[in-house]
Design goal:
Radius of gyration: 81 Å
Helix content: under 10%
Shape: elongated
Number of strands: 55
Length: 691
Amino acid sequence: LGNTFDIENLPSGGVSIDATSPGDNNTLTNGNSSTVTFNDLFLNPNTGMINLYSNITSELGELDSQSFVFYMSCMDFSPTVSVSLSDTICNSHSDFTIDVSQDAGETDIASALFVSDGGSFDISGLGLNDVIGSANVVFASGISVVTTLEISLINSLDDFEVQSVDSSGNILGTFSVTNTVGGGVSIIATSPADGNSSTNGYVSTATFNNIFVIPTSSTLNFISTITSEIGDVDTQSFSFNISCDFSPSVTISLSDNTCNTHSDLTIDVSQDAGETDIATALFVSDGGSFDITGLNLNDAVGTANILFANGTSVVSTLELSVITTLDDFEIQSVDSLGNVLGTFAVTNTVGGGVNILATSPPDGNSITNGYVSTATFNNLFVNPNTTSLNFTTTITSELGDVDTQSFSYLICCDPFLIVSITACDSFDWDGVTYDSTGSYTNVYTDVNGCDSTVTLDLTINYSTSSTVTVTACDSFEWDGVTYDSTGRYTNIYTDVNGCDSTVTLDLTINYSQSLTVTVTACDSFDWDGVTYDSTGIYTNVYLGTNGCDSTVILDLTINYSTSSTVTVTACDSFDWDGVTYDSTGTYTNIYTDVNGCDSTVTLDLTINYSQSSTVTVTACDSFVWDGVTYDSTGTYTKVYTDVKGCDRTVTLDLTINYSLSQTLIHTACDSFVWDGVTYDSTGTYTNVYTD
């Protein structure tokens, strides 16, 4: 191309570009490729497509004309697509369904490509015109068209064509199907043109019945690439999780779990129908060994049995087929016809443990219909001398899936335990009472189900019992406890053997007595050889007949004796305590006073004697004696006390002479003289004369 472009926008729409180049003085080219880009200058039309025509003229006048069509995206193109599977189990046959729908106004689909990264279509056994599915289109108007999917062309089992045929035989669509090399499928779906480039809306479904084979990978991915009639492209992705079921059931069992003993070793493996076939099975233990000492090639060492899901059972024997060493040998499972149904490569590992690698001949497929298999190695496995045995199984499927399981077994190694016990009187052991020294044996089953032999080395020390008889006063202290009443009390001690020593205290409590004696004594009091001469409280403690203290308290009052002298002067005599004393002297009497003590009284007695005399008196008219008027003659006596205090009796011998009385009546003038006395006033006057 040259470097000059003459560009013109045509009046009716479209453009004209005239490109020229300068001459190079020859008419031939050595070859070239040139590109010219007009950046962001061309304005697309609003029609659904654009046609470009090129007319290239050579320097020799030759003309080359070409045309190019470009579809314009002037309408919405967003189809809704889904891909679904009826089953996602690997190696299984599944329905494969494609759903596509468009809204009204979208651009029509020209073609649809569906590509997967795994799986395949299986039409083995099918022929032309065989129905392999169905399709259905529901238009927005409500019209529904149902078709069948029929094989219309078979180039090979991996390259064929399927047509969607309605009930009238009309072909409404075509699916070109290819199983791609390495796994996966390619489906190109096309439909006849309908004379326009837009749709009124529809929902279409196409289902390929049970001919899609699920791959063995964990995921399956589909990519849909849908192109519109004007060149728009819609791409969507779909992923499925694939379940490759491989879950064999495994058990390993021992006929005896006693350490260092020979045991049957049985391996059970089963699978459900539809699981992937087992390629190899490895069984590894961390202890134990196989013992083929004394065995030879072709010796039977066990049995095997397979029970298939259809009820068929195959029984075989396990035979030694290769003996490399006693620790490396091979066992084959041989049926009654001599067919080898499986091989077990057995190795005793260094340090303890076994490896068993089991393999079976292939059966031409990777799926099982289900079975239960059992293989028993008779009395070959030697249990370890440890208390546990662990097996790990690693089973690999024909598709590479790996199942690992672990099994643990208790190995019983009886410890033969000796227990030394020293007990008092008796010892209870497992419900049995032993009351004498000796060795006794019990065999137990421990928590793991193993025997555990225990020997009891028993020493019996016997408890002792004694009684202590004590008589005490008031109270008795025993081991820090004070007892104050008669009774039997028991203390239990631990003796040197650790046994009970029961001591019973037979206690008699005699109580001390306390007595208070109140004594009143005179001057002094003798008590237990001691003379007390003053009032006070004195105590003596005696030993009673019960051996206890008898406390006597002497409440002593000392009253002292008195001595006094009574001096008495009496007349004639003196009576003292019934005794008449008539002479002067000293006399003594002893009395008991109010306190009961002697009161000595000395009588210092003076006797004065009484006197008597007579007095003769002659008186006139009366006589006054000691204040008493006597007016008649007589003898009168009076007793006086003399200076010594004694009676002095005086007798009055009285004579009374009576006086004369006369009255003289005188009347005188001025005065009257009578017996030398002058009276100058009227009155009565008396003179007494002695006759």
